[in-house]
Design brief:
The protein has one domain. It has no helices and five strands. The strands form two sheets. A three-stranded antiparallel sheet has the order 1-2-5, with no helix packed on it. Strands 3-4 form a two-stranded antiparallel ribbon. The termini are far apart.
Length: 118
Amino acid sequence: MLSDPELPKDQRTFERNFRTEAFARTPKGDFGNAGIGLLRGPGINNFDLSVTKRFPIAEQRYFWFRAEFFNAFNHTQFSGLSTAARFDPAGNQINLNFGAYTSARDPRRIQLSLRFMF
């Protein structure tokens, strides 16, 4: 590792989430100097909502409606980064996706239920 790989938040993009130039090929037989937990993945911004309503029919009978929204605001949440640095024999980075997002969490999901209680 040549320098600190942290990139300021205002400079991050979909393809570049950390300084990729901070990494270089290590000499043969060497493990390098990058520590564990050096890179942090994207955070989670998730809101789940639930709405219920009871509709009475008679004294002891009613319909119960329930709606559940998972990731209610449908905010894109990336879940992985490409952290596999690959170098050619000359020491040049050849992984074009190095530092880019690779996957996303589930989009909005809606679940509805209607129950008749008697």
